[in-house]
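Translate structure to sequence.
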């Protein structure tokens, strides 16, 4: 079985337009906190990009361009 982090990575790779934490949580049927932890780890490893739009944050797979 895949870890939550692996599931988050998979979903981000499939959605090149970016997703919010809530959207990822809904797609994977897991809590927002669980997604936030995975996102924090991926951000620390510089594997994702985060773009702030108002209060929302869109998360993309891949390093900053």
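Result:
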């Amino acid at each position: 079985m895949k870890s939550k982090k692996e599931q988050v990575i998979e979903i981000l790779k499939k959605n090149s337009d970016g997703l919010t934490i809530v959207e990822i949580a809904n797609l994977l049927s897991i809590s927002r906190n669980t997604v936030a932890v995975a996102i924090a780890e991926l951000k620390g490893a510089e594997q994702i990009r985060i773009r702030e739009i108002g209060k929302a944050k869109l998360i993309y797979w891949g390093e900053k361009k």
